[in-house]
Amino acid sequence: MSAGTVAIAVADDIGSCMWDMYEIAIPCSVFGLPQPDLADPWYDLRLCSVRTETAPSAQGFSLRTRYGIEDLVTADTVIVAAVPDSVVHGEPMSPELIEALRAAADAGARMVSLCCGAFALAEAGLLDGRRATAHWMHTAALAERYPAVRVDDSVLYVDECDVLTSAGMSAALDLCLHIVRCDLGAHVANQLARRMVVPAHRAGGQAQFIDLSVPVTDDDNLGPVLQWAVENLDQPLTVDDLARRARMSIRTFHRRLRAVTGTTPLKWLLGRRIAHAQALLETTSLPIEKISERSGLGTATNLRRHFAAQVGVSPTDYRRAFETSALPAATQAS
């Protein structure tokens, strides 16, 4: 098995956001540090930019690269680790970068995006007709701008053989370790994960990280009743109860709630119950049975079924991922 050359595409004004540097550092840490006891040779890493130095960031630093954009085209694997935040909001990307990405793909390179780097691959036409992902906060924009892309906001990463995309932030590490696993085997990937003090594979997808809080609404009748429902989730609430409290007919309540949240009252109520269960799993040591009661889901079996369907992992796996080392004594009481 051969590791090959990995080229990271560096946008001209990358670094304007500190998260950009985090997302570049992840593949640098995985592919740029030789591990001769695990595999020799290791990857040959290149940071490639249209210019040899990026524009200074708001924090006063710039990124100097040794390789130019032409070196991107000859790599075995090309990674777009980040794009400027302005690109996500509609600003055009460097045409030189887009042409280099197309040339690299035509030359047979494996194309990879981390987080919002998917916007660059999509702009180059490399995601057309393919399943892809990005940070859940930006998948809607990605889908709207590039309708030919089959955007999936529920997963940590997508492997389409020659084109791979990851969700945001630390999901980039999940994908990078997956690439090592594909190239050099499970043992190497598992040992590397141990050295980086991270799981070799995380359960579930990014659905477990999506914000399920109460939506902001200017509706004077709807806002208070939604807040009341959230405060009384341990009660057997029905759509009739909510509509009556809002002083609306069920049909009117259904229509106005859908206009605000984009979903039905029953789905909204279930989402709030799951969100409350998430909060209890994160901040308390209550048993699953007690959490199911407090979130209004009844039995532990019911909680597990709905939780896995909506969040993508079991309550136990979710608690394991988010648990704190020390919980207040009051939270441990039944």
Give an overview of the whole structure.
With 334 residues, the protein is α/β, with parallel strands linked by helices. It has 2 domains: 5-207, 3-Layer(aba) Sandwich (Rossmann fold), CATH 3.40.50.880; 222-332, Arc Repressor Mutant, subunit A (Orthogonal Bundle). It has helices at 18-31, 85-88, 95-106, 118-123, 139-145, 171-184, 186-195, 222-231, 239-245, 250-261, 265-283, 288-294, 300-311, 315-322; strands at residues 5-10, 44-49, 67-68, 77-80, 110-113, 131-132, 150-151, 157-159, 163-166. Helix 6 (171-184) runs antiparallel to helix 7 (186-195), helix 9 (239-245) packs across helix 10 and helix 11 crosses helix 14. The protein is globular, with a radius of gyration of 23 Å. The model is unreliable at 210-218 and 324-334 (pLDDT under 50).
Task: Identify the notable features of this structure and list them briefly.
334 residues, alpha/beta, Rossmann fold, Arc Repressor Mutant, subunit A, 2 domains, 7-stranded mixed sheet, two-stranded parallel ribbon, 14 helices, 10% strand, globular, disordered C terminus
Residue share in β-strands: 5-15%
Question: Helix- and strand-based class?
Answer: alpha/beta
- CATH superfamily of the largest domain, by name, is Class I glutamine amidotransferase (GATase) domain
The total count of strands amounts to 9
| CATH architecture classification name of the largest domain | 3-Layer(aba) Sandwich
Number of helices in the DSSP assignment: 14
